[in-house]
Write a structure and sequence with these properties.
Helix content is 40%, strand content 13%. The chain is of the alpha+beta class. The strands form four sheets. Strands 1, 3, 7, 8, 9, 10 and 11 form a seven-stranded antiparallel beta sheet that branches. Strands 2-4 form a two-stranded antiparallel sheet. A hairpin with a 2-residue loop joins β5 (92-95) and β6 (98-102). α5 (205-213) runs antiparallel to α6 and α15 packs antiparallel against α16. The longest helix has 27 residues, at 337-363. The radius of gyration is 24 Å and the shape is globular. Bound molecules: adenosine monophosphate and magnesium ion. Residues 103-107, 134-135, 138-141, 270, 272, 275, 284, 286, 529 line the site of adenosine monophosphate.
Length: 531
């Protein structure tokens, strides 16, 4: 077998299209007049391949059968395969509402762009491969716990049908990384890891903000042209109108991504502008979480618990706020205020349409009707009123018959059908039960006469996942992996390849409300940016 990954075809368009930082040394600095700095990963002691995504390998054209040990060396950054040209990119960004100046790839190192046999472009990036000129005061490393979370969730999101970066591999470094997990003044060594993540591009809103902030109009234009030519080629040759069309499409894709996050109950946790992709894909899995008990004010990120800026119910609004920052950055290229305001309108329209379509699919409504808004509004009130598990509720609803004798249930039977979704069924009082029964009857009335039960149920189950990566599930895989047991990690990886399938053998373990032990356990209910 040849050296791993030497079979890939590389084409480094980002490096070719955009200027390099001339400084070859690796130390923390401000970088002006350039889009990237050449930097090599820092070697680690004992790399070991912990997980591998065969589908992503196939996507890239990686031949099967490589020796895992040799793969681990390359995917930890210890050796470079022929054709790789590693670098860290510079970007800026707004963090928690404030402009933060230069950020950049502080612990991500791009290995290069692969052209796969289908001619698709895929950038490979190592996360946690050591310091770069953009590491600021940090170490460029990642801990196993957050790397497991990124590896599992990016693949889970893909199989949910939500646009996302992918993950090829998870490699343990055999070296400790010191982290103060809850910022409690108690730093501890934890096992380190490197994820190799994969996307057509990792360019963020913040790449544009960097050049706009530095008043570097030339590079701003070059970056826009690069993104247009490489990633939005269907829009035409670079010109003010095609750049505007690209910005509009970025806004629309971001809006649709927000609707998708809302549909599946995903909370990103750190929606800073440097964590938003210009391709409209989910990027940078940090202290994310999944809604269990439906609560629009919930955020998994302790760092954001006070302001709740990035809570579930706020994500669509923050997406718009971030698009507004991107539109400002484009101002030097498109000096046309009404056109830039039109980009924000395009976001609003795309979000509204995607949200309506999402609810129509989740509730089995067929085509969305204006009056369905009231049905949805009431449902959200119900879900919030008694702590109700969002994924379980929708999945149970997806299985209900509305025709024939089953459709003529008593109030008690209607409520019984969704009771497994309640966190405290005994605490749901008679008034709440009556309100639930009324809502369920109303819903049944709305869908009756539409598609036959079996057909509607199958369609609803394609919109309502049975299995999502609840934090306590990820934490069980992490606890075991830290002890060297990878079985749970691999089990979850397999489970989450088919999130909409019944998989009855996994129901008891994973089609479950958050267990009580997880309610206040770090990693299950609380996460910080410290990863
Ligand atoms: P985040 O919001 O976590 O995606 O990261 C914000 C910025 O901090 C980015 O520029 C990251 O590259 C950088 N950063 C986060 N963690 C580290 C780390 N351990 N070492 C170096 N830079 C980091
Ligand atoms: Mg980030």
């Amino acid at each position: 077998m040849p050296a791993p990954l030497s079979e890939l075809t590389w084409d480094h368009s980002y490096r070719r299209d955009l200027p390099a930082d001339p400084e070859p040394r690796n130390y923390v600095r401000q970088v002006t007049g350039a889009a990237w700095s050449a930097v090599s990963p820092t070697r680690v002691r004992a790399p070991r391949l912990l997980a591998w995504a065969p589908q992503v390998a196939e996507l890239l054209g990686i031949a099967p059968g490589h020796d895992p040990q040799a793969l681990a060396q390359v995917l930890a950054g210890n050796t470079l395969a022929e054709g790789m040209a590693p670098f860290a990119a510079v970007y800026a960004g707004h963090q928690f509402g404030h402009f933060a100046g230069q950020l950049g790839d502080g612990r991500a190192i791009t290995l290069g762009e692969v052209l796969n046999p289908e001619g698709e472009r895929w950038e490979l990036q190592l996360k946690g491969a050591g310091p770069t000129p953009y590491s600021r005061t940090a170490d460029g490393r990642a801990v196993l716990r957050s790397s497991v979370r990124e590896f599992l969730c990016s693949e889970a999101m893909h199989h949910l049908g939500v646009p996302t970066t992918r993950a090829l591999s998870l490699v343990g470094t055999g070296e400790p990384v010191v982290r103060d997990m809850l910022y409690s003044g108690d730093p501890r060594p934890e096992p380190g890891a490197v994820v190799c993540r994969v996307a057509p591009s990792f360019i963020r809103f913040g790449h544009f903000e960097n050049f706009a902030w530095r008043r570097d109009g030339d590079n701003l234009r070059r970056l826009a042209e690069h993104v247009l030519c490489r990633h939005y080629p269907g829009l035409g040759e670079p010109a003010p109108d095609t750049i505007l069309a690209m910005l509009t499409e970025i806004a629309q894709r971001t809006a649709r991504l927000m609707a998708e996050w809302q549909r599946v109950g995903f909370v990103h946790g750190v929606m800073n502008t440097d964590n938003l992709s210009i391709l409209g894909v989910t990027i940078d899995y940090g202290p994310y979480g999944w809604l269990e008990g439906y609560d629009p004010d919930w955020t998994p990120n302790t760092t954001d618990a006070q302001s709740g800026r990035y809570r579930y119910g706020h994500q669509p609004g923050v997406g718009l706020w971030n698009v507004a920052r991107l539109a400002e950055a484009f101002h030097p290229l498109i000096q046309d205020e009404p056109a830039l305001n039109g980009v924000l309108d395009a976001y609003r329209e795309a979000f509204a349409a995607a949200q309506d379509a999402g609810f129509a699919a989740k509730l089995g409504l067929g085509a969305w009707r204006g009056e369905d808004e009231a049905l949805v509004g009431d449902l959200l009130d119900r879900l919030r009123d008694a702590e109700t598990d969002m994924p379980i509720f929708y999945r149970l609803l997806s299985g209900l018959d509305v025709a024939g004798p089953a459709g003529a249930r008593s109030d008690a039977d209607w409520v019984a059908a969704i009771t497994p979704a309640f966190y405290d069924a005994d605490g749901v009082d008679s008034e709440q039960r009556a309100a639930w029964a009324a809502w369920l009857r109303r819903w049944a009335e709305r869908v009756r006469g539409g598609a036959p039960d079996a057909e509607r149920q199958a369609a609803m189950k394609r919109a309502n996942p049975k299995y999502v990566l609840r934090n306590w599930m990820a934490q069980q895989a992490i606890d075991a992996a830290e002890q060297g047991d990878l079985a749970e990690l691999h089990r979850l990886f397999e489970l989450l390849q088919r999130p909409y399938a019944e998989q009855p053998e996994h129901e008891v373990a994973y089609f479950q409300r958050r267990p009580e032990w997880a309610r206040h356990k770090p990693g299950c209910s609380m996460l910080s940016c410290s990863s």
